[in-house]
Amino acid sequence: EPEVTQTPSHQVTQMGQEVILRCVPISNHLYFYWYRQILGQKVEFLVSFYNNEISEKSEIFDDQFSVERPDGSNFTLKIRSTKLEDSAMYFCAASRGTYNEQFFGPGTRLTVL
Amino acid sequence: AQTVTQSQPEMSVQEAETVTLSCTYDTSESDYYLFWYKQPPSRQMILVIRQEAYKQQNATENRFSVNFQKAAKSFSLKISDSQLGDAAMYFCAYRSVETSGSRLTFGEGTQLTVNP
């Protein structure tokens, strides 16, 4: 059964560095999402993406964050200058349509030192 | 803005018994979706069950069923004949139909332990 995959599974970085988190959605799923979960807190929506454009973003998704689909398969989340508070689990999700089930990847644990 | 609340941080159940996880939500919308997601230790979230607000009938998926009380804004998950593999964090989530976008709004989660 097709799955959403994410790389790396764990990323450690220094504060102020740029990180790129990668996701490979299921092939016929055209709506993409990023969520994050700070340890011990709720899963929070960051951004949704469709047709090479951001559809919706939360107040968390500020200028430090960006998303793109550089090659038609990968879907990336970039954090330009990481802060300690960016340490979290980042989940990618994909769906066939706006109201279809969102399938989640296994997550990338980001640790900012 | 919609909010989702899970007031039980932890629950435990004996194998083969039944357990109910609670969820309440707040919204001014009349049409929306509600979900229960399971997050096992592997961390990948898996959809357990979904309910459309305009449907009065409670959703059922094998051993999993919901008690959807729209007026009370309550959406509980019942797991029957609990199995060791049901041990996980369970998240209740809300998704609007009326407003644009398809973001999921999650509750805090309930950690379910299944005792042999």
Structure, explained:
The complex is a heterodimer of chains A (113) and B (116). Chain A has 113 residues and is mainly β. Chain A is built from no helices and 11 strands. In chain A, the strands form 2 sheets. In chain A, strands 2, 4, 5, 6, 9, 10 and 11 form a 7-stranded mixed beta sheet that branches. In chain A, strand 7 and strand 8 form a beta hairpin. Chain B has no helices and 12 strands. Chain B is 0% helix and 52% strand. In chain B, the strands form 3 sheets. In chain B, strands 2, 5, 6, 10, 11 and 12 form a 6-stranded mixed beta sheet that branches. Chain B is mostly beta strands. Chains A and B meet through strand 4, strand 5, strand 9 and strand 10 of A and strand 6 and strand 11 of B.
Note the topology:
The complex is a heterodimer of chains A (113) and B (116).
Chain A (H helix, E strand, L loop, with lengths): L4 E3 L2 E4 L5 E6 L6 E7 L5 E8 L2 E5 L7 E4 L6 E5 L8 E8 L7 E2 L3 E5 L1
Parallel strand pairs in A: 2-11
Antiparallel strand pairs in A: 1-3, 3-8, 4-5, 4-9, 5-6, 7-8, 9-10, 9-11
Chain B lengths: L2 E3 L4 E5 L4 E3 L2 E3 L5 E8 L6 E7 L7 E2 L2 E6 L4 E6 L8 E9 L8 E2 L3 E6 L1
Parallel strand pairs in B: 2-12
Antiparallel strand pairs in B: 1-4, 3-9, 5-6, 5-10, 7-8, 8-9, 10-11, 10-12
Biggest sheet of chain A, open or closed, and with what strands and sense?
7 strands, mixed
Identify low-pLDDT runs of chain B: none
Please report the two chains with the greatest interface, counting residues with C-beta closer than 8 angstroms to the partner's C-beta.
A-B, 24 and 22 residues
Determine the N-to-C terminus distance of chain B. Answer: 41 Å
Helical stretch count of chain B?
Answer: 0
- What is the 3D shape of chain B? globular
Q: What Rg of chain B do the Cα atoms give?
A: 14 Å
- Please tally the β strands of chain A and state the result: 11
User: Which oligomerization state do the chains in this entry correspond to?
Assistant: heterodimer
Q: Could you give the order of the helices and strands of chain B?
A: EEEEEEEEEEEE
Strand residues, percent of chain A: over 45%
Counting DSSP H or I runs of 4 or more residues, the number of helices of chain A is 0
CA gyration radius of chain A, whole angstroms: 13 Å
SSE order of chain A, as H and E?
EEEEEEEEEEE
Strand content of chain B is: over 45%
Distance N to C terminus of chain A: 37 Å
Unreliable stretches of chain A, pLDDT < 50, 5 or more residues? none
Characterize the biggest β-sheet of chain B: 6 strands, mixed
